[in-house]
Automatic annotation (TrEMBL):
Domain Methyl-accepting transducer: 1-100
Top-level taxon: Bacteria
An annotated GO cellular component: membrane
Keywords from the UniProt entry: Coiled coil, Transducer
Gene Ontology biological-process annotations: signal transduction
Keyword Coiled coil tagged: yes
Listed Pfam families: MCPsignal (PF00015)
Protein's UniProt name: Methyl-accepting chemotaxis protein
Coiled coil: 64-126
Organism: Aquitalea palustris
Taxonomic placement: Bacteria, Pseudomonadati, Pseudomonadota, Betaproteobacteria, Neisseriales
Record has Coiled coil as a keyword: yes
Amino acid sequence: FAVVADEVRKLAERTQNATLDIGNKIKLIVDGTNQAIVAMRDGNDQMQAGRNNAVEAQQNLQGIIQETRQLAGLLEQVAQAENSQNHGFAQFAGDITAVGESTRSLSTETRSIADAIKRLDQLLDELGRSSQAQHAS
């Protein structure tokens, strides 16, 4: 009976050790599982934050695209205004050139008139002298 009791005691010790070992292994598994759950939650949070950042970046990009289109429209308006202004300047320059040519022509005609008036004055002087000479004779 003592041999059987000794064997039962040894078996109980081994069972107790095995139970402790299994408990430790279960604790390690539970701890590992909890760590995996925490890591998955963190990963999920990071994924959600990344998704939110991507949505925000997309919205910002859409805003940039819209503002770029508006800027392109404004630049087109500026270019059209510049072309119109250049056309106006070209017309103005043409008008100035025409005024210059008219002024030169008027100056030439004024000289011709002045020369004609001088000639007429000379003729009147000659006519006056001639008339005086005939009245005197």
